[in-house]
Amino acid sequence: MTLSQDFPTNTRVSTDSFPVNPAKSSWFVPLGRSPEPIPVPGRNCTIRPDVSLSSMTSFRVGGPAELYVAPRQVEDLLASLEWAETRGLPITLLGAGSNLLVSDRGLPGLVISTRHLRRIEFDAETGRVTAGAGEPLPRLAWQAAERGWTGLEWAVGIPGTIGGAVVMNAGAHTSCMADLLVNTQVFTLDGSVDRLTPADLNYSYRTSALQISSQSPPHQVRLVAQATLQLQPGADPAKVLETTTAHLNNRRTTQPYHLPNCGSVFRNPTPYKAGWLIEQTGLKGYQIGGAQVAQRHANFILNCGGATATDIFHLIQHIQETVEQHWSLLLEPEVKMLGEFQMA
Ligand SMILES: Cc1cc2nc3c(=O)[nH]c(=O)nc-3n(C[C@H](O)[C@H](O)[C@H](O)COP(=O)(O)OP(=O)(O)OC[C@H]3O[C@@H](n4cnc5c(N)ncnc54)[C@H](O)[C@@H]3O)c2cc1C
């Protein structure tokens, strides 16, 4: 099976994807499908053609998925994977889209959203919680706080899914998923199901072995179906709720939540903060089309209205070039760029 998350771009901006063979990609060779929804054989699940992805990313930009499915059960997910595999289609995995920049041209092949793969199970004996890939991280953080379970207070302001958080090693306030993860259930395209531990995932700052690079062969790509986290039960729920609320309020005052964005655009290059490096170059407020470097936090790019993915991509390039001129340092994007982008 060909599992792909984007095209090679030949830019200095990293993309997390497989190279797609243009000769084989359905993007380049239209398959002449009917615009009707396609039932997944044997399942109560349909694949929809030409579905806009802009409302499914926190930047609110991007073109359509050639084909899109949002399975409600793991069996539907496996059947959808098999359906794509037998047709040799590239596959893109989509969580909450809160760390994605999707090309204006959209994505070829099948986009699989985990948004309906939701469940939360708290085990009071072990202090562990197991959550489905599509469960929103903030929802899990609030539920843990309401029970008086500590450990996830930092996660309340991160608008991703559990699956996306495991893949990205999401973190804040000096904590991250690597600190909590007991194991994660992942599917591969050959149908195998693995239970991986943090050691298997080779975790480091906002990085995991589950992130796909353009050099990765397709067989290395895996879909997170669920994750089990170790929390600490037994605290006063009022206190945990108070800490959780304080984290959220702190973020709301220091970060721009009022306009579409993807959180931090660049990784912090140790020992510096990317936001500080960008701010020192005077780029706060700099705008290309509808995309602007946030005044409140220079490592955020805002869609001020009507931005395209191309605007954002060109602004990312401009920031990289400006910072490199000032600091002789190339900022590495944290945001995952999917699809085809042209250099400015
Ligand atoms: C306002 C705002 C604030 C943010 N603050 C933070 C922060 O403090 N800390 C932080 O770490 N991040 C932050 N982020 C970024 C983002 O929320 C995290 O990276 C989050 O973990 C992404 O999860 P997601 O479900 O949205 O993943 P997506 O953006 O949908 O996907 C991210 C990557 O993971 C892959 N993926 C998604 N789900 C799966 C799955 N089930 N199996 C395999 N691969 C999968 C995708 O293919 C993609 O490569 C912020 C974003 C916003 C908009």
Could you give the topology of this structure?
Elements: E1 38-39, E2 46-52, E3 64-69, H1 74-86, E4 91-94, E5 100-102, E6 107-113, E7 120-123, E8 128-132, H2 137-147, H3 162-168, E9 171-172, E10 175-176, H4 177-180, E11 181-187, E12 193-196, H5 198-201, E13 223-230, H6 237-254, H7 274-280, E14 287-288, E15 291-293, E16 301-303, H8 309-327, E17 336-338
Bound molecules: flavin-adenine dinucleotide.
Flavin-adenine dinucleotide binds next to strand 4, helix 3, strand 9 and strand 13.
Give a quick summary of the entry.
Helices cover 24% and strands 21% of the residues.
CATH topology annotation of the domain at 120-254: Uridine Diphospho-n-acetylenolpyruvylglucosamine Reductase, domain 3
Shape: globular
Instruction: Calculate Rg over CA atoms.
Output: 20 Å
CATH class of the domain at 120-254: Alpha Beta
Based on secondary structure, the structural category is: alpha+beta
Distance between the termini: 34 Å
The CATH architecture of the domain at 120-254 is 2-Layer Sandwich
